[in-house]
Amino acid sequence: MQDSLETKVPSIIPLAAKNVKDLRQNPAYSNVDVFAYEETRLATKQFTPDYILGEGGFGVVYKGVIDETVRPGYKSIAVAVKELNPDGFQGDREWLTEVNYLGQLSHPNLVKLIGYCCEGDHRLLVYEYMARGSLERHLFRRVGCSLTWSKRMKIALDAAKGLAFLHGAERPIIYRDFKTSNILLDENFNAKLSDFGLAKDGPTGDQTHVSTRVMGTYGYAAPEYVMTGHLTARSDVYGFGVVLLEMLIGRRAVEKCRSNREHNLVEWARPLLNHNKKLLRILDPRMDGQYSAGTAMKVGNLAYQCLSQNPKERPLMSKVVELLETLQTDEVSHEHATLQTSSSHTSSKKRISSRNGSHREGSTHGSRSINVRSRSAPPKDSDLYDPSLGTEEKSESDRG
């Protein structure tokens, strides 16, 4: 596997710290720094509101910089500092779970934990900074979506590699909260999984599942897990299928503003994924012309399998990675050919326009100042403030 030299996971992860007191007495992870609360204050300029990246039930995430002014001799690095709200939905257990897992796991598609602080009542996590925020933030903005087909497939592949890595241990690690807001993007749109507060050790030996209290996010949780509390790696596969469907269609998993028939994305769209013409009609129109019909149908079929009601019929994440790697290679070639064709057509149009313009210049010189909008350009009112975009900027979606 390409990432083998960059990954690190023991066959079975022992949770080194059973509680915060234990963690204080035995800092367990040599690759994770322990920060004083004052150091996190310095890194975030005293937790100034201008540095807020996101906030939610867990607390607030700030952008920060750790350098020599914070800790002498420290190489300067941009970070995201998550401060746990003691009155929020997450408590010591979820906070400690993140430290325990991310303190031991290392993979290009998992967000890196730089360090933590558990001084007094303070609970903070310090992650690498992910410059482009969450997939949710980019995918569901109404104006200026820059996620091309190839970017979406690359993000899907990165996220699949992250899950496959977690599932690949002798005792699989079940992520349990796979969704667009937990997939973070760096400056080059490389995707990494974040927020391991709900992660859990999977079954081993003769066990077929682990029984646990149902937690996660409505719309992404596998139906058998919601009904029984039985958790397996295939539960994550279902969540992956939901996110893949969101990327294909450009809609959220649950949208209450739509008709009852389309309220739940999976219930509405899954039956259409195996009907080629119907699938092509419901794909996100912002990606028109960026993919081949054959590749789109293969990705649609993959989403269909991942969303099977029967967990045994869902593919392993390792198989998902293999398929997406093959499709990405095919689609890069298609996009390159499309761009070349488009560039050729544009050049031809410019030459024709230039010739025509030289004949009209004398008689229509004043017309240049007339404001004419092409049909393809967005109307001016599309630049108006969108409350949903404002919420995104201050939402749970931007974890780092």
Task: Please characterize this protein's 3D structure.
By secondary structure, the protein is an alpha+beta fold. It has two domains: about 110 residues, Phosphorylase Kinase, domain 1 (2-Layer Sandwich); about 200 residues, Transferase(Phosphotransferase), domain 1 (Orthogonal Bundle), CATH 1.10.510.10. The chain has a six-stranded mixed β-sheet, sandwiched between helices. Strands 7-10 form a two-stranded antiparallel ribbon. Strands 8-9 form a two-stranded antiparallel sheet. Helix 5 runs antiparallel to helix 11 and helix 7 packs antiparallel against helix 10. The longest helix has about 45 residues. It is globular. It starts with 19 loop residues before the first helix and ends in a 7-residue tail after the last helix. The N terminus and C terminus are likely disordered.
